[in-house]
Amino acid sequence: MVNANEWLNKKIPADQREQATSLYVYCKCQCAYQKNLPADNKPSFGFGSNTIQPSGLKFGGGLGFKPPVQTTAPPLFGSGVPSKVSGLFEATAASPFDGSEFAVCQHCNNRDQNNYPSAPDYIFYVNLEGELDLNDFVNLNVLCIEGIGQDQQQKLTSLKIDKCINLTQIKINHTTLGCLSFGYKPSLRSISFIGNKRLIFSDNVLKNQVERLSNLILPKDVSINDLKIEIKKIKEENLKYQLDITKSNLDEDNQLWLDSLLEAQHEVLHSNSTYARKQLEKCKKRLSKVLTDEEIQDILGNSVEINEIETQLNKLTLKKE
After folding, report:
1. For 229, how many CA atoms within 13 A lie in the half-sphere containing its CB?
2. Average pLDDT, the chain
3. 8 Å CB contact between 124 and 115
4. How far apart are CA 293 and CA 285, in angstroms?
């Protein structure tokens, strides 16, 4: 592991960072095969028409491989049906990869793990730790930072990209990041956040919510009904935000189980039927394999709060009538 900012200062001087449009940082495989392989026999690219990267995703390339300038969305982020993520940007699900192309180690066999430190597209294979400040990369379009599963994560504690306003594609997989802030409303075409168990997002959503409540409360003739409606909207936004982040770390099957969990809880809250309660417990048991009890209860608790406010609003409406 190397200190992320110290490494960055050595590899890309501050006065050269404006030129960068793509930055790929992959975890260098630490498997026994890679460690013990003689230097002259280590796997490498064939440098043909398709060059294989650590995630099994491909770039076009040729002899003397150099990443092409990206004029369209590169296949790095896969293809799929776009879906809204926290109402801020589009997400594209990456194509599944089973590692079948590689016989020995699906992370390093037949892969070139050398660096390509040349603008505008930088590719590095390094295991980082600590803070990584990319705010000087103001023209960055594509950012990819990847570990290798939960065993070989990029040990980052902080990633600063607040000033990377031109980002259109971002892939942050298998890191120890705890907080990520865009600092602006991103216009991302594709994203991937997989295997980041501690990751939460901090952006302008909270600031916007506080401003809305302040504008509502400041007038002397504030209506309790209007205030509750706004609070309900905010809680719904936060729950959706929470679900989007949680789902980004789940496969498609478990995403459906999470949807079923909320549907079952909705039925329990409104009908309290035996069938609904059984379904709720079934969903909780299934999701306990991929989420902690605290994560499940937090999601359910937020959903209950929304339901309680909705019930209060309905009662206020009936009183008016």
Report:
1. 9
2. 72
3. yes
4. 10
